[in-house]
Amino acid sequence: MNEAKKPKIYEWVEEATKLPIPPKVEKPEKTYDEKLVAFIDVLGMTEKTLGGSAEQSLTLMGNLRLCVDTECSPLPGDVKFLQLGDGFTIVADLACINELCEALSRIQWRVLVYSQMMLRGALTAGPVGFDEEHEDIKYIVGPAFISAYRLETKNAIYPRIILASEEIEPYMAQQSITISFNHIVEDNDKLKYLDFIGHGIVTGKYSKRTLDHLLTTEGTKGLLKREYEKHLKEDKKEVAQKYGWLIRRLAAHGIDVL
């Protein structure tokens, strides 16, 4: 091609090739952080969603989010949560163990009494990575998240938030953190869980009579009785035993449902 007739673009390309190449900037390698991770889920939400309208489902999801946000926002340190449908993943600093146990217990209590639903979940500790650029988590990965999810799905079974002591306690010992939350109970299957009923009684200063009246007027006792008997009648024993577990725990605190 005749040099005099070269299009202007050739001149631009030639000039660009003469420019110095900027040095490659090495981005810092992303690593996991050691955190507390809780995964909680609403039992029976699928049936409620299928049987209700879009407005009812969205309102319910909004109320759940508000409840989690209200209880978790005041916690000390860097606390974030991710909502996916009726499930929540909460990530908090290790030093926040006692405050997080209290918050989870309050969430479970409020959801049962005022939303008429049962929560199940798991609390663990370990390596986790998450989006740090937003107030709410946009994604979450890592062994601790997988552990919390599996524990909730396979081990929690009943409406209880179980505590993965074998995973949490080594971290607490390493950092000289004492677990002083007084409402951790060992169940019949040797799994420890957060006794949200006992915590609610103590922190809410309920007498047996006051608590019985609250659960009656809010319709909680009636709901548990109806659902338990209905699922027994329909031979859905796996569902009935979840209601039965909670009914027995209430009875242990002096509240008779059946």
What does this structure look like?
The chain folds into two domains: about 35-200, Alpha-Beta Plaits (2-Layer Sandwich), CATH 3.30.70; about 205-258. It is built from ten helices and eight strands. The chain has helices spanning about 10-15, 45-50, 55-70, 95-115, 145-155, 165-175, 195-205, 210-215, 220-235, 235-250; strands at about 35-45, 80-85, 85-90, 120-130, 140, 160-165, 185, 190-195. Strands 1, 2, 3, 4, 5, 6, 7 and 8 form an eight-stranded mixed β-sheet that branches. A hairpin with a 2-residue loop joins strand 2 (about 80-85) and strand 3 (about 85-90). The radius of gyration is 25 Å and the shape is elongated. The mean pLDDT is about 85.
Short synopsis of the structure:
This protein is α+β, with helices and mostly antiparallel strands and 258 residues long. The chain contains 10 helices and 8 strands. The protein folds into 2 domains: 33-201, Nucleotide cyclase, GGDEF domain (Alpha-Beta Plaits, 2-Layer Sandwich); 206-258.
Give Rg in angstroms: 25 Å
Helix vs. strand class: alpha+beta
Low-confidence stretches: none
The CATH homology group name of the largest domain: Nucleotide cyclase, GGDEF domain
Largest sheet: 8 strands, mixed
The name of the CATH architecture of the largest domain is: 2-Layer Sandwich
Report the sheet-strand fraction.
15-25%
Domains (count): 2
- The CA-CA distance between the termini, in Å, is 96 Å
Question: Number of DSSP strands?
Answer: 8
Shape: elongated
* CATH hierarchy class name of the largest domain: Alpha Beta
Q: Helical proportion?
A: 40-55%
CATH topology of the largest domain: Alpha-Beta Plaits
Overall residue-averaged pLDDT value: 87
Would you list the SSEs in sequence order as H and E? HEHHEEHEEHEHEEHHHH
**Count of DSSP helices?**
10
